[in-house]
Amino acid sequence: MLHIITSSLFLVMLASTNAGAAEHQHMSHEAMQTADVVKTMQWTDGEVKRVDHKKGKVTLHHAEIVDVMPAMTMAYRLKDTAALKSLHAGDKVSFVLEKQDDAYLVTHIRLVK
Ligand SMILES: [Cu+2]
Asked: CATH for 2-111?
């Protein structure tokens, strides 16, 4: 289920990336709500440092996320905690963050070979 959503949105992201990634990364919050289905997904490369099954969190060392945060190591909650089972320290991943209330949630994560 999650994989289907991921791949269809990923195609949308690829299309919008071609149209000009810089502009889309600066989409306003209002615009993002209006274009909910065509939500811009900003994939970030990272490395798994720690998997916390009890808290449902993964600690990621990641590259800069433009306009969101600099490169850092930080623990994030996963939207789909079942994905924790396929993550291990040392894994190279690509992930998408979404701000929810005052915290960031990993909505999509995939292993990078
Ligand atoms: Cu951070």
From this structure: 2.40.50.320
Share of residues in the chain with pLDDT > 70 (%)? 65
pTM as predicted: 0.64
Give 61-98 pLDDT, tens digit per residue.
999 998 889 999 999 999 999 999 999 999 999 999 99
The whole-angstrom separation of Cα 21 and Cα 14 is 9
Centre of ligand 1 to C-alpha 88, Å, is 19
Query: Which three-class secondary structure state does DSSP give residue 27?
Result: coil
Alpha-carbon distance of 88 to 24, in angstroms, equals 32
Cα of 29 vs centre of ligand 1, distance in Å, is 19
Which tokens is 111 given? 């292993």
Spacing, Cα 69 to ligand 1 middle (Å): 6
